Amino acid sequence: MITADRKPFEEIKESVKDYKKIMVLGCETCVAICQAGGEKEAEILASELRLAFGNEGNKVEVNDELVVRQCDDEFMADPAFLEKVKEADVILSIACGVGVQHACKFFNRVITDKPIRVIPGLNTTFMGANIDVGLWEERCLGCGDCVLEKTGGICPIARCAKSLLNGPCGGSSDGKCEINKELDCAWNLIIERLEVLGDLERIKPVEMYKDWRSSYSGGPRKRVREDLRL
Amino acid sequence: MKSGSNLERLLEKGEFVVTGELGPPKGPDVDVVKKKAAMLKGNVDAVNITDNQTAIVRMSSIATAKILIEEGLEPNMQMVARDRNRIAMMSDLFGASAFGIKNMLCLSGDHQSFGNHPEAKNVFDIDSIQMIYMVKTMRDDHKMICGEEIEGDFKMFIGAASNPFADPFQYRVHRLAKKVEAGVDFIQTQCIYDMKRFKEFMKQVVDMGLHEKCKILAGVTPLKSVGMARYMAANVSGIIIPEEIIDRLKGAGKGNVATEGIKILCEQMQELKETEGIAGIHLMAIEWEHKVAEIMEKVGFLPRPTI
Predict the structure, then answer these.
(1) What is the domain count for chain B?
(2) pTM of the predicted structure, to 2 decimals
(3) What pLDDT tens digit does each residue of chain B (307 aa) get?
């Protein structure tokens, strides 16, 4: 899933201080699961803003709404919902960066008589997994050319701080990374896993230069499935 | 000859070589470089020039190496994968070769989070092993990574590092084997204090015949104080300092610790010279360049051989 953290409250408050009618828009998918931008978080943020502005004697209307996914048109097309979007001075989206951008584009496409302002309430962090209660870790950088079959299912691109493709650097110590003793050395994990699988031979040949064109280095990416296009 | 450098020729001749190390200044102060160079001149066979070591911004290794050549020393230019993509690496290598730099060391590089600009974006386009292969292809096939021909003659004696004290220990020799497979000519190891573990590592190296495919220089650093020893053991990744060494330093008493540190170093250098598979020493006297002559004299490694 995509994980995110809520921006500091003061930063959010500063970003919406010039508006009288604010819609906090939650997203029910990834950021709801990582408890950053779902229904509950939208309600809490709306209350906090109401309270903060109210204490300052600032008359601001703050509502909260929720859609299943802000990265998909079909979940935002309800006319009653769009009417509320139109009435707001600003949409404070607590989706990931994808959701913020997509909601902005969609609202401004379907609502033509007024520009819709959408701003973020979260900092999007990474593609990761929920490892334990309250713990998420990065697992994939979306490089577009998966190497997991060679590395025992542990990604050296995303999980080695140097994205090394040929084994642990000289900073690997007691299974931990040189940059942080809390961080597992990805190559240590890879070697342990391959040992169990009896596949250590796989990482003995030199792994050649990676072609980064399939990653972000090749420029922003687009995926086209001609068979699905009308 | 691969590059015809002094280092390569001495190693080919079977001489027991000693390389030194020079950390460039945090600015364009040429005098700092010249002063350190003067302390090393004639006392070592080649001098490593660090490339923004521990991710702290310093004069570039290529420029510092050029100054060393002008001062009559032979540089071993370090290059890290942290700050340059393959385009910048090949370009800088052409420049280095044009300046007469004939030795280099291919390194991953310390992560920028250790340095004075932890906010920086890193590169890590290719890793140190791929860098070795890249330089070898440039030298032996006269080709860039893309396959295009190189204009002019590119010569380089290719080095890399090995850290027998990092983990997982049983894999370290295989990582060295990968460097050999990629085409490395010589290896300089991380600072050795744990002689037992180093000898275990060297046994694996010799059993695999790796010492016959590349020249291995054993890394050493004098310990100036008990504090330095404790700091290095706790904070420098991949360094193990056995308690008995720390005890010896402590036992030397006030005012004598540095002398004891040098004594320990000289014993280590002698022991390493006798170790099978070791072709030389890499003496990293960090900010202690003025002691190099004394150390080399004490250990009986002077004068340096000439070709």
Answers:
(1) 1
(2) 0.96
(3) 999 999 999 999 999 999 999 999 999 999 999 999 999 999 999 999 999 999 999 999 999 999 999 999 999 999 999 999 999 999 999 999 999 999 999 999 999 999 999 999 999 999 999 999 999 999 999 999 999 999 999 999 999 999 999 999 999 999 999 999 999 999 999 999 999 999 999 999 999 999 999 999 999 999 999 999 999 888 887 789 999 999 999 999 889 999 999 999 999 999 999 999 999 999 999 889 999 999 999 999 999 999 8
CB contact under 8 A, B167 and A173: yes
The reply to whether B147 touches chain A by the CB within 8 Å rule is no
Contacts of A210 in chain B (CB under 8 A): 125-126
**Cβ-nearest to B181 among A179, A206, A212:** A206
The one-letter amino acid code at A172 reads S
DSSP result, B17-78: EEEEEEPPPSSS-HHHHHHHHHHHTTTSSEEEE-SSGGG---S-HHHHHHHHHHTT--EEEE
Considering the segment(s) A2-126 as one domain, its CATH architecture is 3-Layer(aba) Sandwich (3.40)
Give the whole-angstrom CA distance, residue B273 versus residue B195. Answer: 13
**So what's the ipTM on this one?**
0.94
Residue boundaries of the structural domains of chain A:
2-126, 141-217
Of all residues in chain A, the one with the smallest CA distance to B131 is: A209
**B20 lies in a domain?**
yes
Distance CA B275, CA B281 (A): 11
Domain CATH number, residue B61: 3.20.20.220
Closest-CA distance, B61 to chain A, in angstroms, reads: 21
Restricting to B residues 245-274, those with a Cβ less than 8 Å away from any Cβ of A are none
B149 forms bridges with which residues in the sheet?
B143
Residue in B125, B181, B237 nearest the CB of A212: B125
Domain with B65 in it: 6-298
Q: Which residue of A lies nearest to B107 if distances are taken between CA atoms? A: A169
